Amino acid sequence: TFSIRYLAAPHADFSKQVDSLFQLMDQSMSTYLKGSLINFWNQSDTGTLVDEHFAKVTRLAIEMAQTTGGYFDPTVMPLVRAWGFGPTASNRPDSNGIAKILEQIGYENLVLEGDFLRKKKSNIQLDFNAIAQGYTVDLIGSFLEKKGVTNYMVEVGGELRCQGKNIDGRTWTIGIDKPESTIQANRFAAIVALENAALATSGNYRKFKVDSLTGIKYTHSIDPHTGYPVNQSLLSTTVISADAATADALATSCMVMGWNKAIAFAKEHPEHAFYFIGAGQGDKYTEWHSDSWKERFP
Hints:
Layout: E1 2-6, H1 15-29, H2 37-43, E2 47-49, H3 52-67, H4 77-82, H5 95-102, E3 110-113, E4 116-119, H6 132-146, E5 152-156, E6 159-163, E7 172-177, E8 188-194, E9 197-203, E10 208-210, E11 217-219, E12 234-241, H7 244-257, H8 259-268, E13 273-279, E14 285-289, H9 291-296
Antiparallel strand pairs: 1-5, 2-4, 3-4, 5-6, 6-9, 7-8, 9-12, 10-11, 12-13, 13-14
Helix pairs in contact: 1-6, 3-7, 6-7, 7-8
C-alpha cells in the first residue's frame, strides 16, 4: 500500500507520473515480477548491465552493509527463498542446507563497474526489499520537489518521507504502531512530528511463517551471518534519517542485530534517530530512545 499527500496548485494531479515511477521500480527491482531486471541479474552467471536506479540502490546497499558490519546484506536472497519469504513457497531447510546457502551470501561478491554489476560467484542473488521501498519514497519525493512541491508526505509500505507542512500548516504527524499482530483501535506506541526527514519502521510482529508440523514461528528478519531467522526480545525498530532508503536499511539492520547490539550501534550513529520496542513482562513492552531521538522529541 502507499499514501501520497501534497499541497500544490489546483488541478495539479501527478498520479499518472507516480504510477509510472512505481512501474519503473517494479521493472527494475521487484523479485515478484518475473521479467524484472533483478530477476534477470539473479539468473545470470557473471552479472548484467543495470539501470541508474539499480546502480544507486546497489551502491547504498553496499554502504549499508559495510556500516552495519554485514547485518544488512543485499545478497540474502537465497536465505529469503529458503525460509519461504520469497516469491515462491519453500520447505524449511536443515542445518546442512543452511551451511551450503551461506556460501552464496556476501555483499563482498558484488562489483559495480560503471553500469555493469558483476558477481564474483555465479550463484549470488540480490534482494532489495529492505531498501527499495525507501528508495522509491525518496524518488517520488524528489519528483514532487522538481514539480515545485515543497509540502508533502510520501509513504510506501510504511516507509515515509515528509517535507514542509500539512494542509493545516502544521508539521506532519506520524504514528508508530505497537508491535502487535493485529491492528487495534489504540494502535500507536508513539506519535512523532516529522519535518524534512524520513522514517522507517521494521518489525516481525506481522511478517512471519508458522511451521505446519512443529508450530514454530519463523520471523522474516534473517541474520546473514548465521542463516537463521532472528528470535529475540526486540520487536520493533524505528529510524529517522535524512532519506528513506537509509532509514529503511538501518531499521532492518537493527531488527536483525537484536536489542543490545542495536542499542550499541545507535549510540555510535547519532546522525540518525532510533526508537526501539522490546518484549517486557506479560503484555507490557520496554522502550529505548537514542539521545538524537530525545533531542527531536523531548
